[in-house]
User: What shape does this take?
Amino acid sequence: MERRMLRRSGAVLVCVCAVVAMSGGCRPASSDAPEIQIQLTLQPSPPQVGDADVSLKMTDAAGAPLAGAEVRVEGNMNHAGMKPSFADLKEVEPGKYSGTLDFTMGGDWFLLVTAKTPDGKSVERKIDVPGVQTK
Amino acid sequence: MTAVAPERKTSPVPAKRQSPRQAARFDLLRVPLLGRFLQWRGSRVAMQIPVLLLGLVMIAHAFWGPELAPKNLATLLTWVHFRGLVVVVILLAGNLFCMACPFMWPRELARRLFSPRWRWPRALRNKWPAIALFVAVLFVYELFDLWASPYWTGVLIVGYFAAALLVDALFQRASFCKYVCPIGQFNFLSATMAPLEVAVRDRGICTSCATKDCIRGRRAEVATSRAVGAEGPSCAAAAMQLPIVQRGCELALFQPRKVGNLDCTFCLDCVYACPHDNVGILARLPAEELATEGTRSGIGQVARRFDFTVLAVVFTFGALLNAFAMISPVYVVEQWISRVTGLTVEWPILASIFALALVLEPAILLGGAAAITRRVAGSRDSLLAIVKGFARSLVPIGFGIWLAHYGFHFLTGFLTVIPVAQNAALQSFGYPLLGDPIWQLGGLPQSIVFPMEIGIMSLGLVGSWIVAWSIAREHSPRRAVGSFVPWGVLHLLLYVSAVWIMTQPMSMRGTFLGGV
Assistant: This one.
């Protein structure tokens, strides 16, 4: 009787572990255009709490500037429960975009860059910004 | 025959048998609608099912939703809403999370499947397993940055379900709740600060009660025993063979001798089992039970139990440690340890910080306070005995720090659940079922929340002082002031430390050594 109970418990545990293990590879695939390169710089560097200047350079697979894209940067802390910051970047010269992003708190942030190119391609990149410093 | 035929809940408690104080106490079960709902036996399941469904949604989102913590329901609800709501609800009412605990409903199913036969091992009938797990959860939270990882948060939730299932499938009674569950222990200690407790309405009725169903459970009706043909003396024996139709307290809390909320999950089994309708959810003075000496049913003497002392210490100093780990000075400590020891791996450095905060610091502070108390009071008690006696006075300030910390995250971010849920629906169904995500929703501004944090911790400090004063008067009536002062200073030190931490800019760390 006790053996049967142990076997049942073991089976339940194995099922739970299997669900957890299988779930690792089940996330939705990204519809990103991997050939597009993005270079992002922040000023001040390292970034501090408050407004930061965001400069972004976007190039295609051949390294040519990608002009005319709609670019948005979303800043999030790595802890849940914090309101994100947004910056719509303006094109200052072909393939170069800039704007201002508000780092509302010190700590580890990540930026989500989303862009739509004139030929309809979508780009989504995550860029880690560890250690935003408090003033 | 009464042992098997308890009177059904029909007659209200006669007013003349109640003391004036008992009669005046607010009873949640007497509140129209809400009281009737809670007295309905299905009420607990009715509360557990939505929480369980929410738990399943969180698990699904943890494994199949966005990997970004601020956009994932598992991380958001676990580390912001659940933690915040638990402490806020305990402060305003009582241990309602254990009442609606989602881990217990699968357990009920498991019990039907497995019929557990073993008793929880005698050597482990204490708080040590739960203390070890409590520290382990705090440690892995820091080591693996759980707040930033939906996947590992999901693993933690699934692991919790699995552990509850396994323990209660193998062992009888509420072994998981009483001896294993770290959240439960957190809730039990926190609930000593709650304004409500499950308690007897009229002790006189308990004195004349022959069945003690509140602890033994209620067995099948008389008619059933007659049907099996038992009569006279054999009837009582036969009655004991009858199935229990309503279980009594599975945490071994015998209502007439139960004191306060320690170990009480608010499951209300005692309410349903009592044949005299003599158990209610009564109002009481928060923290009053901490000033109470003597033996408690199912617990013994708190002041003599070293495991409860360590639990109170881990609860209080863990609150400081958990908050300290979220501000940038923790980097300085990490770098100092790294420089002194030459270590460059995170876990031993983190383990050193835990050892400093949860062992060395309490040993020095509590040992010092006990030594001064012994000297001033001229006591012959050992230092450990004095520490055990006063340790429970740490709980109010500890709870205040937890409440300030978790309340901060909850109050500044409670509305973020709306855009995250909208985004989850959008990604799951392909169209904005709940509307387009309104990412600008946050919560209260920090400038409003900060004074609330200070107020809450100040109340905790006053609570600790009142409890310590009461213990000092009990401990050495003639030199109560001298006995109290070292503990009062200790509480003040903890309070000042907590205020300093809360005034530091939050720096949600996840970078080992500050990225150096």
In short: Chain A touches chain B through 38 residues (CB under 8 Å). The domain at 37-132 of chain A is CATH 2.60.40.1930 (Immunoglobulin-like).
